[in-house]
């Protein structure tokens, strides 16, 4: 069984094959967060999609407490380990790898990536596999046609897609992403956290129609498959 828990904004906890991973754990300062950094006793990996504070979030704090490895674009991984004590990072770039038994593909995203006023690395998404199930976390991105390639190469079972607009795709663009990716299930994310991204996920669900099953999770809710 693979368990996907939405933590609010773009943060997820995913469990499968005995592994626990966090993606973009922006919890402190997140008005929609369903957990606190200290709630996690054991995490194997933390995946970071880009350097913005609402995605790196509490990665360092959680890694220092749990010993989890932070996986990120090489430049971001280097920046994090240079700036913080007691963490281990795994730097990579677009392409496939396996980290501690977790199969990952880091894929492009159309977005900026910066910290402290400086550009750091590139934005990315991740395709991960647990028990034969492929999960795509798009990170912050606009829709782009290369998403068709992700579907062709890997096959996407679950797509975690931003729908908030302003910084990412809105519902219309995310619906086109669903057409490109052809997933079985879609979980909308990166909406409702702050006023500029106050979108209604039901609008997205209506646009998607029968192209995929849209699973709308409130922060803290779980989807299992």
Average pLDDT works out at 97
Low-confidence stretches: none
Number of domains: 1
User: How large is the count of helical segments?
Assistant: 6
Give the tally of β-strands. Answer: 16
Distance between the termini: 6 Å
Topology (elements, then pairings):
Blueprint: E1 3-8, E2 11-16, E3 19-23, E4 45-47, H1 53-56, H2 59-66, E5 69-73, H3 74-83, E6 88-92, E7 95-99, E8 102-108, E9 114-115, E10 118-119, E11 124-130, E12 133-137, H4 147-154, E13 158-162, H5 171-181, E14 185-189, H6 201-208, E15 213-214, E16 222-224
Parallel strand pairs: 3-4, 4-5, 5-6, 12-13, 13-14, 14-15
Antiparallel strand pairs: 1-2, 1-16, 2-3, 7-8, 8-11, 9-10, 11-12
Helix pairs in contact: 4-5, 5-6
Can you describe this structure?
With 225 residues, the protein is α/β, with parallel strands linked by helices. The chain has a single domain (3-224), classed as Metallo-beta-lactamase, Chain A. Helix content is 22%, strand content 32%. It is built from six helices and 16 strands. It has helices at 53-56, 59-66, 74-83, 147-154, 171-181, 201-208; strands spanning 3-8, 11-16, 19-23, 45-47, 69-73, 88-92, 95-99, 102-108, 114-115, 118-119, 124-130, 133-137, 158-162, 185-189, 213-214, 222-224. The strands form three sheets. The protein has a seven-stranded mixed sheet with strand order 6-5-4-3-2-1-16, with helices on one face. It has a seven-stranded mixed sheet with strand order 7-8-11-12-13-14-15. The chain has a two-stranded antiparallel ribbon with strand order 9-10. Strand 14, helix 6 (201-208) and strand 15 form a beta-alpha-beta unit. Helix 4 (147-154) runs parallel beside helix 5. The protein starts with a strand and ends with a strand.
